[in-house]
TrEMBL record:
<dbReference type="InterPro" id="IPR001845">
    <property type="entry name" value="HTH_ArsR_DNA-bd_dom"/>
</dbReference>
<feature type="domain" description="HTH arsR-type">
    <location>
        <begin position="38"/>
        <end position="131"/>
    </location>
</feature>
<dbReference type="InterPro" id="IPR036390">
    <property type="entry name" value="WH_DNA-bd_sf"/>
</dbReference>
<dbReference type="InterPro" id="IPR036388">
    <property type="entry name" value="WH-like_DNA-bd_sf"/>
</dbReference>
<keyword id="KW-0805">Transcription regulation</keyword>
<dbReference type="InterPro" id="IPR011991">
    <property type="entry name" value="ArsR-like_HTH"/>
</dbReference>
<protein>
    <submittedName>
        <fullName>ArsR family transcription regulator protein</fullName>
    </submittedName>
</protein>
<keyword id="KW-0804">Transcription</keyword>
<keyword id="KW-0238">DNA-binding</keyword>
<dbReference type="Pfam" id="PF12840">
    <property type="entry name" value="HTH_20"/>
</dbReference>
<dbReference type="GO" id="GO:0003700">
    <property type="term" value="F:DNA-binding transcription factor activity"/>
</dbReference>
<dbReference type="InterPro" id="IPR051081">
    <property type="entry name" value="HTH_MetalResp_TranReg"/>
</dbReference>
<dbReference type="GO" id="GO:0003677">
    <property type="term" value="F:DNA binding"/>
</dbReference>
Amino acid sequence: MQRAGSWPTAASLVRIYSNNGREYNPGCIILQMRPYKHPATDEFVLERVLYALSDSIRLEIVRHLARVECATCGELDGGRPKSTVSHHFKVLREAGLVRTESNGTAHINTLRSADIEQRFPGLLSAILAQQDKLPSRRKKAA
C-alpha cells in the first residue's frame, strides 16, 4: 500500500488492467479523440448549407477542397487562429459540406460533394462555378 502523496512505484505502473476490452496503465492518462459527428445526407438542411457557404473563409475552404482530394486543417488555416479555423470547420461539418477524420494528430478534411449533389442536385457545382464577384472594398484614389 502506498502512502498518501507518494508517487506510484515502477511495479505498479507496469501492471496492466483491462477495461471494456481495452488495456490501459492506471498511472497514465489515455487521451482519445472523439469521432466527429457528421449529418446523414437526408439530414442536410438547405438553409444551413447556404449559411455555411455565406462566409468568405468557409467558401474559400470549400473551393480548396473541391480542387484536392483531401487536406489537413493546417493546409487550410490560411494563417488564421486555431480557434477561428475550428469554428469554421464545425459549421461546415454541421452543414454536411465537409467530413473530418482524425489520423493521429492530424485532421483530414474531404468535401462531401457526392452527398451534397445527391441531396441538392447542381447546388455545389453552381456555387463553385461562380467567381468571387464581391466589389472591392478599397477606396478609389481621388
